[in-house]
Design a protein that fits this description.
The protein is mainly alpha-helical. The protein has 16 helices and no strands. The protein has two domains: about 40-260, Hypothetical protein af1432 (Orthogonal Bundle); about 270-330, no CATH class. α4 (about 75-95) packs antiparallel against α5 (about 95-105), α9 (about 170-195) packs across α12 (about 240-260) and α13 (about 270-285) packs antiparallel against α15 (about 305-315).
Length: about 325
């Protein structure tokens, strides 16, 4: 019996009867030989951490576009916070922590430059629409490794596709990540808003903070405990109605007071116009798109528009600015 088999045997003995066991995974689209040391979900986690799309998250917007200061969240730090919260919940519920971590680390790989602003712009411009969850699946299935894809397990890909509010993950680990995503961004976005002097802690509705807590630490503790205590020994991931309602109401407060705030979103129109400019330019200059994207689209019988969308979605904030400047901004010159 090798190390992987021993790990799978341990999972059967100690994990919840509702956990996703590595040895019972639905597998990969392209079958591979098992690794002697790592379970299927551990291999998925490692592939995600080492892929280029994961590294690019460090220069992609979370909420604040081009903030001044080193302590505002990026898409990468958001991802790490989601992973930490989700792993804490899964460990307490005796779910598969490796699967949870893999889903959490991959859940936002499909995000565009400039966060949801870029997503809305591409959704408006692409004839077939754009959604970061679906594109995340395209990233791991098609675009990574120069068109080979990462060949992740069914369970991880299901978690990526279904991590939004409207999603219905097929595993409890995916359901944990879906809730952890909201817990993370609600709390760290409040922290960033306070740091950015958008509002103060005292501005949060008192009827909500009396339930959830009066600091990020208290709110995180309340929400994590609520999930664990309500879901322990259950075949679903749950929260008490009062706490879930308070969390979702606080989420609406954030949409009304931060996500559409003039200060936080002062650069959104510029980002929208910039991505539109890139899209229109590359639609008529597909020869300037890196060949990996055009080759993938052509090999799959897709239109050149797919290559345009894939290329722009892959860009980090600063890379998209650089390319836009190269195309549209005159350069100084010397004889």
């Amino acid at each position: 019996m090798n190390i992987r088999q021993k790990s799978e045997d341990i999972e059967k003995k100690i994990l919840s009867p509702y956990a996703s066991l590595s040895g019972e995974s639905k597998g990969r689209a392209c079958q591979e030989e098992d690794d002697e040391m790592r379970t299927i979900y551990q291999r998925d986690r490692d592939r995600i951490i080492h892929c280029k799309s994961f590294r690019r998250l460090k220069h992609k917007t979370q909420v604040f576009l081009a903030p001044e200061g080193d302590h505002y969240r990026t898409r990468l730090t958001h991802t790490l916070e989601v992973s930490q919260i989700a792993r804490s919940i899964s460990r307490a519920l005796r779910l598969n922590e490796d699967l949870t971590e893999a889903i959490a680390l991959a859940h936002d790989l499909g995000h565009t430059p400039f966060g949801h602003t870029g997503e809305r712009t591409l959704n408006r411009l692409c004839s077939y629409g754009f959604d970061h969850c679906s594109h995340g699946l395209r990233v791991v299935d098609v675009l990574e490794k120069d068109g080979e894809g990462l060949n992740l397990s069914f369970e991880v890909k299901d978690g990526i596709l279904n991590h939004k509010t409207s999603g219905t993950p097929s595993t409890l680990e995916g359901a944990v990540v879906r809730l952890s995503d909201k817990i993370a961004y609600i709390n760290h976005d409040i922290d960033d808003a306070i740091r950015g002097d958008i509002f103060k802690e005292e501005a949060l509705p008192r009827e909500l903070t009396d339930i959830l807590g009066h600091s990020s630490r208290e709110r995180l503790d309340t929400l994590i405990r609520a999930i664990v205590e309500s879901s322990e020994g259950m075949p679903e991931i749950r929260m008490p109605d009062e706490i879930l309602s308070a969390m979702m109401t606080l989420r609406r407060f954030m949409f009304e007071n931060l996500y559409v705030n003039d200060v936080a979103k002062s650069e959104e129109k510029k980002a929208d116009k910039m991505i539109e400019g890139l899209f229109e330019y590359f639609k008529t200059h597909t020869e300037e798109i890196p060949s990996v994207y055009t080759d993938i689209a052509a090999g799959r019988g897709e239109t050149p528009e797919h290559a345009v969308c894939d290329y722009i979605a892959s860009m980090s904030d600063r890379y998209s600015v650089k390319i836009f400047e190269e195309i549209y901004v005159p350069r100084s010159w010397n004889r």
